[in-house]
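I hope you will forgive my troubling you with a question about protein structure. Here, with my thanks, is the record as I have it:
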Amino acid sequence: RINLEVSHMVSDGRGTLSFFQTLLYAYVQERYGVQGIPIEYDGSDQQKSEDSFDKYYEHDKAGSTHAPKVYRLTGWKDTADPTFMEYHLPVKDVLALARANGVSLTSLIIAAVVCAIRTEMPQRARGRAIRLDIPVDLRQFFKSATTKNFFGLAFVSYVPGDEDEPVEKVAAQINEQLKFATQAEQLKARMNRMIAFEKNPALRISPLLAKDLFLNLADRITSRETTTTVSNLGKIRFDDRVAPYLRDINILTSSRGLNFVLNSFGDDLSIGISTVFANPNVIKNFCRYFSSQGIEGRINIDRTREEVADDLIETQFEETMMRTKKAGGQK
């Protein structure tokens, strides 16, 4: 197993993946003696180190955003020791299910996440929106070959209300929202707004301490506007001489809440799940949807049986406390 960890300060998922592919090519050459593998990434050093955010920034095209009242996940957290999971499903089966419902694979996965969260929402919160941000690679909209950060955010939201709509109906709504949110002009407007904040003259001349305080506040406000994140890096391809040596490719991200990262390699759809929450019910609900559709998967987790048992004890304790608090409130 080869693990590569990269700080988001250095690069985003797509840029890191380009480097990881090159790393794997070098490994296969050294370990198995496979020669003549071309390096797929052919950008110049200048192109690889380009700040594409700055290059394509247009001050007069910064768009505004409005977030509804958002539902935020709650529960027992361990931010110092998040749980990381890999959920593997056959691509062809998930894709067939998505196509049968007239939606994209990404929309189906997002809808399954939304409904998994909805199941755990208290009744009093069902008027709030389950809002997700979806990172989108901006290189496809601009002439950029940078390996630095260059992504935008698309947003989708769903308000459960009193009715539990099926996943497939939710997926149709998500699919329409994604079509609009991932249009080039929408992504560019959000990108320009983000860069305009960075280029604010008052912020640029402020002392570092003031910058840190201000940015921490902005980060807190932004985090309150989303319930969770789902990112899809799409199909990952390797040279035919390298692919036989690879079983699966998995991508995970650090999290202060609950995050999902998708990618596929061959017929393996890998869903990387990162969570700081001890309660696994949202993840269980998510996996059970695919099982209910006859699509069986496998899970890898960075926990021993004993650690999983400890997490369940914490979850049971939390649920007991919540029931006690609720009973006390009813009196």
User: Anything to note?
Assistant: The CA atoms of residues 1 and 246 lie 10 Å apart.
